[in-house]
Amino acid sequence: RLAAVQALGGMVRVTRLDLVRPQVRVQIPERAGGGPSACGPDLLSRLEIRELRIDDGAVDVTFPGGQRITAGGVDLRARPTARSLRALAARPRERVDLRVRDLRIALDDQPMTTPRLAVSGELAVDLSGAEIASAEAVVDGVNVVARGRVKDLCAPVLDLEVTARGPAREVLALSRIHRDAPAEGTITAEGRV
After folding, report:
1. Which of 38, 53, 70, 151 is 20 to 30 A from 59 via CA?
2. Rounded Cα gap, residues 130 and 157, in angstroms
3. Cα angle at 150 between 186 and 31, to 5 degrees?
4. Is pLDDT larger for residue 164 or for residue 5?
5. Contact predicate 138/117, CB 8 Å
6. How many CA atoms, within 13 angstroms, populate the side-chain half-sphere of residue 21?
């Protein structure tokens, strides 16, 4: 039930929202010069969900340049972080645990795929940033682990420590050095993105 003030344009507060097998298909429009971001619609500023659970969701997002991200088997748990004195001055944040199966990221003619992605961290409710405590995936045969910060999720600025380890051939292909290198052995790489 919504209170009268909620229905008339105020803040909508939901104690818990459970979504089972939701399918989300989004086409992000081009940004008009200096206008508000399509990523963080005004709706987010008027919606508060105390606890969100998504089970077995599917996502298909297409960006203005034709880049596309698809995922099946999306499981998400989000709940507010504990509010400390220091955190009271900061924007509200959610503790997020995300598990994704069958992720495909097509940024160019060589898409990346992973059968499993697991991410844990904190997300600013207004999408202004995220703290990634742990992100783990096997991307095209390469084990990738990352942690750090992402600023402005609508136009991401990454500050991540990343470690990748895998067979030489797959690492060289994933890093776009050589798609079919006749390489043997294992490569481990660490870096900041």
Report:
1. 151
2. 10
3. 115
4. 164
5. no
6. 0
| Long-range Cβ contact pairs of 73-77 (< 8 A, separation 24 or more) | 73/99, 73/100, 73/101, 73/102, 74/98, 74/99, 74/100, 74/101, 75/99, 75/100, 76/52, 77/52, 77/53
CA 3 vs CA 12, 13, 32, 42, 55: distances in Å = 9, 10, 35, 20, 28
Tally Cβ neighbours within 10 Å of residue 78: 19
Q: Is 160 helix (H, G, I), strand (E, B) or coil?
A: strand
Q: Is 31 helix (H, G, I), strand (E, B) or coil?
A: coil
Give residue 57's identity as a one-letter amino acid code.
G
Residue 32 confidence class, pLDDT cut points 50, 70, 90: low
Q: How many whole angstroms separate alpha carbon 15 and alpha carbon 95?
A: 15
Task: Write down the pTM of the prediction.
Answer: 0.79
Average per-residue pLDDT for the chain: 84
Between 163 and 50, whose confidence is greater?
163
3-state helix, strand, coil in the chain (%, to 5): 10, 55, 35
Condensed to tens digits (0 to 9), the pLDDT of residues 45-104 reads 677 788 999 999 999 999 888 889 999 899 999 998 876 655 555 667 899 999 999 999
